[in-house]
Write a structure and sequence with these properties.
The complex is a heterodimer.
Chain A (H helix, E strand, L loop, with lengths): L1 E10 L2 E11 L4 E5 L6 H8 L7 E6 L2 E2 L5 H5 L2 E4 L10 H6 L14 H10 L16 H13 L5 E5 L7 H13 L4 E5 L4 H4 L3 E6 L2 E4 L2
Parallel strand pairs in A: 3-8, 3-9, 6-7, 7-8
Antiparallel strand pairs in A: 1-2, 1-4, 4-5, 9-10
Chain B lengths: L8 H7 L4 H9 L5 H28 L2 H22 L4 H24 L4 H4 L2 H32 L1 H9 L4 H26 L7 H8 L4 H34 L16
Helix pairs in contact in B: 4-5, 4-7, 5-11, 7-9, 7-11, 8-9, 9-11, 10-11
The chains are: A alpha/beta, B mainly alpha.
Chain lengths: ~210, ~260
């Protein structure tokens, strides 16, 4: 369970987050909406301790997260941004990238699982042989989502991951996360689609957070 | 060896009037560069005159310790100049960058020891110009590497975060940035090496031929120095980024903004 408790964050004299309180329970699906520059992306970075707060704290299962348990804390999350990662190599190599990191040496890429995820997000598994740079932005973005999903992290922090996708691929991505009741999802978005798929809306406007019921 | 013909100072002065032509072109185009040009030329003349005085002195002294100390001074000045040009703080980064250039210098010196005997390479006449050429030619690639490395890291914070949350450690998470920066820094030099001798007669060779060496002797030196420069550029750029990244991130993997000088 992730909790933001009284989080206030100021940058260059501006209040970015103002006394934000939010608890995300296991299995919950939240869409974080609000105008650009309202602090949505910053809140995700606060959750991962990539932004330090001026007041308040981030808690995991009611315990405050400190720098000492940074690695463990971050390994609970899947963070995906709005742009695919720059990469040289084939799409298959891109999907295997996380398994090249020392921390993931014990894990193995499951090729059949990769194919299944590709089909679920509307990608032809044959694309795996293509050079990554030849793929379209939308294809790269969906591969980036699959790349992260393989790690079986229970909590997804998604930062406008569908902003570069066309209508069909967007629906397949949003639908995938909506059906995935095993994962907790906090998705920053400008897109109403997420709400249509049953995500609950939390809104962040000029640093103030409120939950719509 | 034939002595090089000495150019007298009055002759040099008269030669400098050839600068009238760039000045006329600037005026014709209303380019306000004349003042800068004259100041730069004057500065160069004064600096080189000073260098001549102390090199003359160092060459006459020719003591191992003094020669090595002189190379160390060159390394510190090179590191400082690289930091200033890549808009990094001298105070915060010098101690992290300096080892990169010390190690590079050590590597190149070890290489030179395969070619020269110890007494020759440590004599002022060989050590100072050879190391000077190597250090002078790695400035550009180091500046490009550091500048590219940090500007891309700042512009792509999300990529760095994504790598770290995918389980990458500090070194793994900066590898894509390091790779791009190194390519930008030393990639173009590979092209330059390939045109050497056809497009340009390199400076060292020209100097040696004027100094009375046969072209056959001069090209061997030139080939050796090109290999040394390219190796030094690659190794020092890589190590400089590798060491600089230690000063650049806090324990949470956030960039320390205070290592950067304010952009103008």
């Amino acid at each position: 369970m992730l909790e933001f408790r009284n989080v206030t964050l100021r940058r260059a004299g501006r209040v970015i987050l103002d006394q934000v309180n939010l608890t995300v329970s296991p299995g919950e699906h939240l869409a974080l909406t609000g105008p650009s520059g309202g602090g949505k992306s910053t809140l995700l970075k606060v959750a991962l301790l990539f932004e330090s707060v001026d007041e308040g704290a981030v808690l995991w299962n009611k315990r405050e997260v400190s720098v000492a348990d940074l690695t463990t804390h971050r390994s609970r999350f899947l963070y995906i941004g709005q742009k695919p990662l720059p990469f040289e190599g084939t799409a298959a190599e891109y999907l295997d990238l996380p398994f090249t990191f020392a921390a993931n040496r014990a894990l193995r890429a499951d090729k059949a699982e990769q194919d299944k995820l590709m089909e679920a997000l509307g990608l032809d598994p044959a694309l795996k042989k293509s050079p990554y740079t030849r793929l379209s932005g939308g294809e790269q973005q969906r591969l980036t989502i699959i790349q992260g999903l393989q790690l079986e992290r229970g909590f997804c922090l998604l930062d406008e991951i569908t902003s570069s996708l066309d209508q069909d691929s967007m629906r397949s991505v949003v639908g995938f996360f909506a059906q995935d009741t095993a994962r907790t999802v906090l998705a920053v978005t400008h897109n109403r689609e997420w709400l249509d798929f049953g995500f609950s809306e939390v809104s962040l406007e000029s640093g103030k957070l409120w939950r719509r019921e | 060896m034939n002595e090089t013909m000495v150019i007298s100072i009055p002759a040099l002065f008269i030669f400098s009037f050839i600068l009238v032509f760039p000045v006329l072109i600037f005026r014709h185009l209303r380019l306000r560069l004349t003042r800068d040009l004259l100041i730069s030329m004057a500065r160069m003349a004064v600096q080189l005159a000073l260098v001549a005085v102390y090199l003359e002195y160092i060459f006459r002294l020719d003591m191992l310790l003094v020669n090595v100390a002189w190379v160390l001074v060159m390394i510190v000045v090179a590191s400082g100049s690289i930091l200033r040009q890549s808009l990094l703080s001298w105070r915060k980064c010098l101690w992290t960058i300096l080892p990169a250039h010390l190690l590079t210098a050590l590597l190149i010196l070890t290489g030179f020891l395969l070619v020269f005997d110890f007494a020759t390479i440590t004599s002022a006449r060989y050590l100072v110009p050879l190391m000077g050429m190597v250090l002078g030619n790695i400035l550009r690639s180091n500046v490009v590497a550091l500048d590219r490395f940090f500007s891309e890291l700042r512009a792509n914070v999300e990529v760095h975060i994504q790598y770290l949350t995918l389980g990458a450690n500090g070194a793994e998470a900066v590898r894509p940035f390091l790779r791009n920066a190194l390519r930008a820094a030393v990639g173009p030099q590979i092209g330059t090496v390939a045109t050497m001798g056809i497009v340009s007669l390199p400076g060292m060779m020209t100097g040696q031929i004027l100094g009375g060496s046969s072209p056959a002797v001069a090209i061997v030196y030139q080939i050796m120095i090109m290999i040394a420069i390219f190796t030094a550029a690659t190794v020092s750029s890589f190590l400089a980024m590798h060491f600089a990244k230690k000063a650049a991130f806090d324990p949470c993997g956030r960039l320390n903004e205070d290592i950067f000088l304010k952009r103008p």
